[in-house]
Fold these 4 entries.
Entry 1:
Amino acid sequence: MALLEVENLQTHFRTPDGGVNRAVDGLTFSVEAGETVAIVGESGCGKSVTSMSILRLIPEPPGQLAGSIRFEGRDLLKLSEREMRDIRGNEISMIFQEPMTSLNPVLSIGQQIGEALRLHQGLSKSQAEAKAVEMLTLVGIPAPAKRVKEYPHQLSGGMRQRVMIAIALACNPKLLIADEPTTALDVTIQAQILDLMRDLKHRVGAAIVLITHDLGVVAEVAERVIVMYAGRKVEEARVEELFRAPKHPYTQGLLGAVPKLGSSLDGTTERLAEIPGLVPSLKQKIQGCVFASRCPHATELCREVPPALEEKAPRHVAACHYAVKEAVAA
Amino acid sequence: MFAYIVRRVLATIPVMAIVALFVFSLLYIAPGDPAAVIAGDQATPADVERIRASLGLDRPFLVRFGEWVFRILRGDLGVSIFTNLPVTRMIAQRIEPTLSLMVVTLFLAITIAVPLGVVAAWKAGSWIDRGVMAFAVLGFSVPVFVVGYLLAYFFALELDWFPVQGYTPFAQGVGPWLSNLVLPAVALGGVYIALIARITRATMLEVLQQDYIRTARAKGAGQGTMLFVHALKNAAVPIVTVIGIGVALLIGGAVVTESVFAIPGLGRLTVDAILRRDYPVIQGVILLFSFVYVLVNLLIDLSYTLFDPRIRY
């Protein structure tokens, strides 16, 4: 049994005009204990909604969740709000994209790290503060005993993201969901935060679901990759496999759109590849392949019949009628 | 911080000076001649002239203003034209009921309005929210004296839960003191509760959209912690500001409320003084109210640092 098994997850939102936005539409994936899985895709593909759905942070209504999210065998969608609170920040925790706004400006760093500890482990105020100092040391913040009494506005963006990581890891979660943890940071800080996450992952042993649109981050941190498009999974493979031989035209397009270092110097001033068109509106049910409208290889078949997720190579699935099948049986 | 307090206290001096100038000018702006009033209907012009001289009304404006200010700085607010008692003593006799009324109203308003506003924001759009907002509109639009008479009719005359009117000094026990103040405080607090509840709701609505509220939920914080620890502390500065500004409402409302409930406080003193054109008393009371208002708002400004660590003086 995997640590997290998401099956046919559907997160829909009722729109004010009476329609339904199918932000996540039938997503299935699993995460093994200690594993790092990246979910990639462009803006609006449903990756953040997926992460929020796992912790049930989607306001209902207007949101509506269906399918199942089994964490250690328990279906999170069937738990009461009270039981869910015991899981949040304790067994599953989350790091958000915006470190500048994700910390409460009027509570001290120590209070914010200590809160989860006091809530889930019943620590006293002084125990929680001692543990907060320990966590700050762990995430590499200098002078932790002093920092613990400070407030978010006294810290830089990178420092704040370290504090967010300290909050997330305080209760030794089994699963850490990181929603674009480095997007808002500048490049040198990004590298530091990624290093820190990798380092802590080995020490703490938590599984990580990394939500990102940055393929560089994926290559560096993830073991397995799930590519999402228009609320669905279109491809999944181990990271080396995906970069070596992407099967789905969307993934191929994504990888083609990554600039290569030095490409402007070697004389071949080729235009950076792009995927033409826009993500389709999720308010109508899409017939056929979700990517058909932007796919260079799309045919009548693609527009009529939705492709099933098929194993195209060992442990490599893609949802495309025309993706080349390698010898799976072997 | 200390330097800031000193600066703020010094900054109240020009404010108070302008208030003093205005208060003093009342004597010249307002219609009616106090000397003629005191002299009565039967007086000859010579009598009036004599009284005017004894009051010092015949001397130049600036001279009299200067003298008046120096007297006030020594703690002397003059003598009532009507009762011949020192104004400071008259105020001292009347200050307890008014202060009691204001403190009880303030306490009642904050403890009712803030939770109402928080719940309304939390359940925004629900019938609870609409109920609170309807109550707030009602609080704004029904005048104190209407609420006051209705309350007195139902809760004092019909149900006999509270005394109809009057005031019992604090020294005679908290119970009697409070029972006399409940109805006036509710009547006076209506507008104030409406104001605070609305601001609390609006500010909380904004705060609840913030990313750090999501972080708190992701940590497993319950609704109560989320609302009252994470959100309310962030919403505190606008709420406290409105509480401070609203003290002016209380001062104005106290005058009417004291009349409705026959409370022998400063409000009644003010009304009586105005009716009798008892200028020294009017001046003294207005100066006192202005001073209290300035002081309260200074305290409010200083309290910001308690709620928001980003504010430093």
Note: Chain B touches chain A through 21 residues (CB under 8 Å).
Entry 2:
Amino acid sequence: MTEPGSCDNLLKAAFPVIVQGDAICGESSHFLVPKNLLPAITRYLHTQPSLRGRLTLIWTCDHRPVRDTYGLHYLFTLETSHHWVLLSSELAGNDRHFPSITPHVHAAKWYEREIRDMFGLIPEGHPDLRRLVRHEHWPKGTHPLRKDFPWNRVLGQQQGEYHFRRIEGEGVFEVPVGPIHAGIIESGHFRFSVAGEPIMQLELRHFWKHRGVEKLFEEQTLIGAVPLAERVSGDTTVGHSLAYCQAVETLLDLQVPRRARYLRALFLELERLYNHLGDIGAMCNDTAYALAHAHCGRMKERIMQLNDRLTGSRFLRNVIRVGGVTRNIENRQLTALVDELNRIQPDFSEVGAIIFANASLTDRLEATGVLDQQTAWDHAVMGVVGRASGIDCDLRRDRPFAAYDELPVNVALYRYGDVRARLRVRGDEIHESIRLIREIRAKIPDGPVANETSCSPKPGDWTLSAVEGWRGEILYMVMAGEDGRIHRCKVRDPSFVNWPAIQWAVPGNIIPDFPLINKSFNLSYAGNDL
Amino acid sequence: MLQAIILVIAQVTVLLTVSPFLVGLIRKVKARLQLRRGASVFQPYADLAKLFRKQPVLSTTTSWIFTVTPYIVFASTLTAGLLVPTFISQNPMNFAGNIIALVYLLALGTFFLILAGLDAGSAFGGMGSSREAIVASLTEPAMILSIFAIALTNGSTNLSTIVHKTALLDGVATDPSPQLMALASLFLVALAETGRVPIDNPATHLELTMIHEAMILEYSGRYLALLEWAASLKLAVFLSLIANVFAPWGIATTAAPAAMMIGVLVYLAKTAALATVIGMIECMFAKLRLFRVTDLLGVAFILGLLGLLFFYTLRS
């Protein structure tokens, strides 16, 4: 166990140049680091056995017009204490280069490519500098998150070609899939190199529908941007709006009433329930086991109707607001909710028993799409996928938010990392969510459900907030601007981290098993492609 | 002569009209077992009517093979259907071919489908074709062996003779072991050949997992309608084969109108029962991993072989 203090001392002893910073984001240490030290210090954080820092977020901020600098920030979560270590560095004036940490911290590779695309800052020494978000038809020099780029600028077109990694040899051929699919699936491109049916390599090419979400945040006020956060990924409405509101509340120094914190936990668990039920059904459907799909679909529908009755929205839109929740849920409604869940739970247990007793289904799920623990760690994978590969992390337990400091969570953990483990994590979490909702009903205090504030934050103040959504860790960095507006908002859906990992779960499997593996990850295309 | 022509027309009519119903029935059974209401059993007729009205879209990379394939597949499957007794045991077309001709008429359709899958030049068509080639090459020996077991026990390769003799209980061996083995083998072959779970999933939208659907992915309009109809015809052919070879009782053994009426009704009941069984199987099993399909078809081959062995051991 590494105590937060000892971690600070270790870092300072190893790198005397670094200076303590003053960021406000809960339990964390903040250091200002000269940019040339970044690779060494991140490597130390990542590999030192007593620290084992998992890269959690990298973001950049254009500080203009206040000062002519770019801020670079690296957030690590320490494996043992779940303490945050934040490293900040700045690029001044016309300096457009920063040292890449990807050679040492593999999980940084998409973040650094994203920064290059969105800000035009060049990560020197990055092994793969192909464009990530900016597809080749974006004109040269388009970097939308720079402050001198107007949000409504109409882009021209240019020609360009993306070079996929190629495997050559006798009998090896490429199978391109997407971005247009036969089913109702979001747009993503998958390039397989196969020798017959077995897959030798998979390369993803996403980011087909860039919406400019982070840029749009900069046109909003702190209070008014909740609907935008709700729409980052449609199936994670509560997760995203909660993470956003928590960040704003920290900036406004606004306390959320206890009842509202319980209701927020309730909504988050309802969202987890309906999505996990849908996922388990969809995974069974991908093996053509339509029976379980039909029953899980039925139960998912019951939860969504519950959502509708409680909040007026099947997808729990417009329930979280800055300062609390938008509407109270009466205690008798909560009792009715628990009664309904008490009826659904044995129903689900029965379907679960049928699923795990079916030999033909088990044969499809077991040993399919294995993501081993080391690979998962190297890619900083978390959430459902991480917990199925032995990465023991759950923000509800590790960094409690909403009412989770009073609601202890039992974290589902499996080590095998195959499709079946991911199915089991979801199954266990459904039972755990129902248990939590019962506990919420028992413990919820009476009182107001929202607080107001008239204070506005100092321009340039920023904070981080993290929520364990149903897919995994959702992170928001919000920096206040002038007149209660947003200067910069960094959104990180768990999908952005877990997508690259799927490329390592697939090789060695056969092509017809890929849809099943992909479904067991069930990552968001929209949350990834902001 | 006139009677023969009328019977052929009746046989074609029965096959063409019953086959979409069987597909609709399987879907309905699946839906009911999943607590869904499901579409009407007559939905496949509406789908066919809709597709025949739609204009087909052809890829510019396709050759004549692509456009000719639907007609070949439809015609060969229908011809194969004429060799199988449906409601009358003495099939008017029995002179035209025996049970081996049936196997290779169906194989002709499969062969052209495989070509058409490759012809459109899409990644999925090629995958479907290569998978179908594996499945087809494994079902063929299993089917031939089980058919030989039946043919030997009945002393003929002509389906009408086999069915007629069995229906009249004429010269039937007392021990049905060869037939039971052949039945099990042929049932597995039927599931594989008609693209049902656990070999293929006809309801999937996932291109990467498809076999039959991947080959016809580029088809639209009337070409697709013909292929869909041919697929349901193939299902009807296999169900008729299983129903009438192993349990022909109730089939019309003479050309009397009353006997034929009963024959049609019994035929409908038998094929509907088999379709229900398939629908239930589709609810009970997940699809096999592609490379396990070979194991299942290996089992079908061994069952056919056992049928043959039983015939020789029982005879001596």
Note: DSSP finds 17 helices and 15 strands in chain A.
Entry 3:
Amino acid sequence: MNPGKARATSNSSMLLDIESLTKIFNLRQGLATTQLIAVDQANFSLKSDQPEIFALAGESGSGKTTVARMILGLTEPTSGRLRYRGKDITQLSRREKKSWYFREVQPIFQNPFATFSPLKRIETYLFETAVNYQIVDKCQLQPYVDQVLSSVGLSLAEISGRYPNELSGGQAQRVSVARALITNPTLLIADEPVSMVDASLRMSIVNLFRELRDQKGVSVLYITHDLATAYYAADRIAVMLRGWIIESGPVEKVLGNPLHPYTQDLKKSIPTPNPDKKWGDLISLEGFDSEALTNVGCKYASRCAEATDMCRQQTPESVEKDGRQVKCFLYEAT
Amino acid sequence: MSFLAEAKDLRAYYITRSYGVERTVKAIDDISIQIKEGEILSIAGESGCGKSTLLKVLLGAIDPPLRIVGGTMQYRFGEDYYDVLSMSVDDLKKKRWSQISYIPQGSMHVLNPVRKIGNTFHDFIVTHRDLDKQETGKMARNYLGRLGLSAEVMNVYPHQLSGGMRQRVTIALATVLSPKLVLADEPTTALDVLVQRGVVQLLKEVQQREGSTLVLVSHDMGVHANLADRIAILYAGKLVEIAKTERIFNSPTHPYTQYLIESLPRLDDKSDRTSIPGRPPTLENPPKGCRFHPRCPHALEVCGQKVPPLTDLGNGHQTACFLVSEVDNSEPG
């Protein structure tokens, strides 16, 4: 049996629980300090008994990477709670992080060629991770690494002795996934894992996540700006806009039939690879540039076609509607 | 058929020599392509397949280590023909921006960071037109207005604009002198979905109003589907298929194109998608014969020995594949 699954039953039923997580960066320019709210009161959770791919989507600057960095302990949250199996991540000691947390939660980064040093043979990373986390005995190292590599469709013979530049983007990203799998994690934090991979190999990485979920019970937090792959791979999705999670729920509902005006506009603007379904109406980019970074009102009010005075003055609450959470005044009444 | 630019049997290699070791990257190997007047031609393919190099040659920007090893490249403006490869640098400079212009990918690195947008417009226009500062300002403001941009951008520095705004200013700069041929290299790649749509629509609007010709390089097939009249598919420095957009998406004949279209995730469909087996070849040492044959599930014996010629299937649809050219009536792919 997979040890990840065995551990899951012993603790809380929530794998990852994020509650009103906020990160404010103070930007100093001379004597003036401006505040940038990167993540504003984000809520979402992953259940431990049900492995899933959870997509975190949004445009650049919407705060999705900041969320990932906070989960990985690279950035300290300003406020809010971040719990993994019931334990507050920010309170973990260094030792706990190494002996427990990072065995369970592993990152995969955007650019595999930046992840690996060009001067080191690529298999070193796999062996080093296994040794550092004391996963297997020294004599078992080779077969173990080979076994992990086979789960991403590679073999040790194929990559041993090679440097990162000798691999294709897709292969290097697979090794990057294999490195994350060495510790036998329960949760992978994948930050834009396919954006640097060629179109012809992109689906192989996304399919790999689906396989890991179905066969090994690994949950994946899939951070992306590409909504088409998010729809293909994910079970649930949270759409972020300038720090807010504005709509979250099952991916078929959120992207299939979006409720929030922003998600609706987003869906309409994804270029469909089908010449029979071209964009119909023209989009106006007027509100995009004058957008003031105000902290009052809805963050989409300046571009929203349905914005009212209330939207510009008050902050909407997340409401449950048709199986998902929406942060919009249009749906508050019900 | 009237063409605006034509490349014949073009070979462009990157040749570098360091410490006595010569490396040759065959970025464009025997490509013939015609760009028709008034069309939007898209060039698609994965990274490192030579699409940006093709655009460079079309622009006439051939600087070492890029060298033209063989073939010809011609422009036709009105009744005059120009041989790009033998043109002097001065002649090329005169043609550039006024007849041929270029929209680069990273708009942050294109605009001069220490000059206001208005001054950049002035620099652009006075190189080709005999106008004073007030007249160029007026011309630029009028043009920005026609593109739906506010005249205020004239007074700001590039870093004060958002990414989408900068890209639109770059488009305005590239088209202010009404060039006949506009070359765009990944114009929307770094942009967010909503902004991307706005920029693509602007490109189309400019092309239609000015009656110019647009050559667009992108790896995003969704953008091609929305914008292009014709699509050229490049693989490892070779043109493998060229056809009208509908043909490429609905009935592709080259196995590579079939895989490419098949692997695209779509928003209304969660069924399994597979990616192409294997990996793209390096351009330094490409496989013999058809360059796709090591990854191709339908590879014949001949594919590993001979290079398939570009075969005309009628209606402007051309494919370089033995499955199509050898056996005429069999099911392709």
Note: Chain B touches chain A through 47 residues (CB under 8 Å).
Entry 4:
Amino acid sequence: MLGLWIILILACLVGAAAWAGKHRTVKAIDVAGLNFLTPIVRLCYGEEPEKQLKDIGRFIVVPVIAILLFLGAWHVVSEKIQTKSGKLPNPRDTLHAAKAINDFHYRENDKQAAFNLNGEERAQELERVEQRLEELKPLEAEVNKNVAAAKEAAKERLATKVAPLQEELDTLTAKFKDAKKQRDDELASLASQAAVGDEDAKNAFVGKVRAYRQLASDERDRLRDLRTEINDMRAEKDPEEQRALAEQTAIAEERQYLGKMQDQLTDSNRYEKVDEENAKLQEARETLYAADSATILKAATKVAQTEDRIDRIEESGYAKPATLPYQVKRSVLCVFVGFLIGSAIAIPLGVLCGLSKTFMAAMTPFIAIFKPVSPIVWLPIALIVASAFIPDPDKHWFTQWLWELPLLGEYKINPAFIASAVTVALCSLWATMVNTAFGVAAVDKDHINVARVLRLGFWSRLFKIVLPSALPLAFAGLRISLGVGWMVLIAAELLSSSEGIGKYIWDQFNNGASDSFANMVFVVFVVGIIGLVLDRMMIVFQRLVSFDGAPTAI
Amino acid sequence: MNPHPDKPADPRFVEIFNLVKAYPNPYGEAVRVVDGYDLVMREGEVVSVIGHSGCGKSTVLTMVAGLNEITAGSIAVGGREIDGPGPDRAVVFQSPCLLPWMTAFQNVMLGVDRVYAHGTKQQRKEIVEYYLAAVGLADARDKYPREMSGGMQQRVGIARAIALKPRMLLLDEPFGRLDSLTRMDLQDVILNILDRERITTMIITHDVDEAIYMSDRVCMMTNGPNARVGQLLDLPFARPRNRAAVLEHPLYYELRGALVSFLEQQDHRVPARESAQMEAGWDDTLHMVEALNETELEEEPIDETATHTENQLVGAGV
């Protein structure tokens, strides 16, 4: 799989290099900020092969080795960390969790599609599902058999492994019991010989009691250690048994999914339900037409109720649970909404601050006080305010209008979403504001002189001289803002329960299923990679607007 | 030759009278960089202002441009005292000062939009293209400054200035950062335009040959601080200028000699204030010794680099 991707990327590179020419490809790579690919392109053109190979070694091979080392270290460390939620997931568990998340997403999509299928397509799909169910039956039986066999084998293996220890435990227990009895008898006989006033003998007796107590304690410890060892062995999961169980789970999950599909294609299907209701409606109508003055009201009500129900069914959709890809998309949407709100505030204020020292002086206290405020503080306030404006998103005109929109509607923007976006805006706008102000204030004096000689008016001075020269710095600020916004957003979603990556993490933390821990670790990578992509995107924008063509830091 | 053939050229088109520029000095009296500068320019005349670096040439030019406040005195162009910078006095700076986010065309258009606000878009476009062609950049109109050489950038700067149809053109060491071949090209570009348009021009330079070749009159400035006009030199060469004709002119070497000797004299001159104090009879023994030392120095062979360092020191003092 990974190999395929690498080959595909290489093929694209070679194709691009052949089609667009070396310099244009290298330039495109540079603009996209993927400079580690440059040596490959140059190597294709045979340019200083030794240097290119060295660069490939440094910028591709070394990072890959570092990643492999990291995975190895992770694997080793994860074995050592035991928590209440199970062992720290190792790379394989995490990959497995990623696959499960992916499967869940596609299966939910299938179910949704099945709910909306009708006619010939529905019949075909149903046939496919039933066929697969038939196929699964022997597989399931085999897997069940495998599991039983694996369990049996594991039990046997355990028994042979435990047997010598158990034997040792049994013999030791018996031996210690005898020894204790003997010591007790000895002490009893000594006690019977005791005489009044013989201090030395009595002190010696105390010493003996103490020594025997110590012996008994040592023996207890020895037995306890043995028992713990045996228990640990029993608790240890047999890898083969685990493998068999995982197969069983996979098949059970697929069967469950197929069962649901079957249901969505038959009884729960929208058109099926509508047909059913239509039949009822027909019946009700007939009753209505046959009714006399005594029963007409009841019959008419029935017709009206059935008609309403049909309307509702036709409007309804499949109640699809949020899957991670959906939550990721909603988070990205949320961060951009917040980022846009923040930029819409920050850029004009920043320009004003840069233009006027007086305005800057007026803004400085606000920047100084609000900049360090944590998102955790902003969020509850934003949530209260957003909820005050939109008390009931199901009835408010604004949310209703948003839900009707073609592409946005899917994401069901609600007060929690708005509060998260506003929090992102409040936390991220400072970097843009300060950088824009700095960029505007630092316009080259020569350029200002040009504007003075031409006697440019305020607006043309602003749009032709000041803003273009402030643009690179403003974009540097926007890049920082987006990065900050993405970090803030996860926390905001987690707290406000706005459907998104943050909420996914919180849900996983709370539900404590066996795979939750691995899911959370996987989400760490999802968040990181999206943050990286957002940052690269901003770098590309920054490069496109920087007029001097200066290379931007990577 | 004259922009308004029916009107005679105004002999006092530019009047600079007793111009002073002083910078405040927290540890004493204000430093008067330029002190009592007087100059009258005929309409259409090209005057070079020459002097050692740091003597205040550029200060005079920026004051005429209106970019620098005047401490005392007055500057009048076309009979009216100037009031801040304006497109009637176009400036070509030493660095081209092009806006890097605009193409050559857009850079020139920036000023044209402003000056020909009443013209149609097509007319303005034609004006820009005409001036770009005049500086030899017809093919480079869509290039960005970063894609052009220093010489090409300076050509755009010249086109931008000339396209404003200024009453006065101010060139602040416009070729100072160019190599000598490019410099000769650009000198001819400017001379061609001046022959056609007859704009009253002030050129700041420290190149003696450039001053002789380009101008009708050379204004030699004394060393700063307290710089003023030291000497004016009329040049007899006809327009349009021809480099070979100028070089072969019988008076060329004599004029050049006069300029160079003035500059050399300035090099070893006692600063203005000290000489004034000496004239006032302030003849302390110590100063006598200093004066003697200076005469001794004068006899030493002149080392180019040494004079340069000294000039820089003077410049740093200003």
Note: Chain B has one domain: 14-88+166-317.
